[in-house]
Amino acid sequence: MEKGANNSIQQEKPSHFKVKALQSEDTAKSIERMLATQLEKLVKIERISEGKDFNKSFTAYEAEQLTVKNVNLSSKSEVDKNMSAQIIGFFCMMLLYAAGSLGELLLKEREEGTFYRLMSTPVSSKQYILGTALFSLVTLLAEIVICLLAMRFAFQIDPGTSLVSLFAVLALFAVFAISISLAFSFIFKSRRSLSAVQTTIFTISTLLSGALIPIQIMPNFMQRIAEFMPQFWVMDAVSKLQQETEFFGLSLNVLVLLGYTLFFLSLAAYRYTRNSEIKSFI
Q: Per the database record, which ranges form the ABC transmembrane type-2 domain (predicted)?
């Protein structure tokens, strides 16, 4: 406080106050903001006292200070939205694991010879694979319905959007999960290697996507990486739906998920045509 500081407050133009720090500039800036707030308060008290008795006005101000209470302003709807997002993020990983059993089933029947016995019947390999994939998809859709109904009616958690919209997003992700499982089943030759790779990829991709960990607390470079994960686009779609975005406003999310699905279906088709063990029974 330099000479003239008191007079500057009386004139309602605070000056002659300086803050210096030997090292941390951030500390100095914080103190400057605090000082500016206090000086503004003193100027207002000076203005109220009208140049008469500042100490009397300040004492009256101190005696009538308001009591401050900490109140949690988070509404139940916001809590429900956050909980439903966490549930859906975890459920995405469960859908991947459930769809992964499709690839393991195909490899198991090939290892045990069931597949080759089926190929001696009028059933073609394409019909067998398509039928198994459709059965897995119907199972996943049933799991989605049960999960959404349980979340809404059993646990009384309001997702903040319609269950139909959530079902549509998760159903599209289920189709993607089936496509990646099919691709892996044609790439790998044994169930052990398939199971190990699927578990690793599904877990890491879910963690990186922000489905289990809120993406807002991730570093910027991790948030950029998350955008390459299919689960990220599911969580982003859920967030948009909770913000009352129309389902037609999710065009980018739908296109990205469809792109991933088509890529893995194309990979599965390519590996299918290159698999001599399957082609020999066509």
A: 51-275
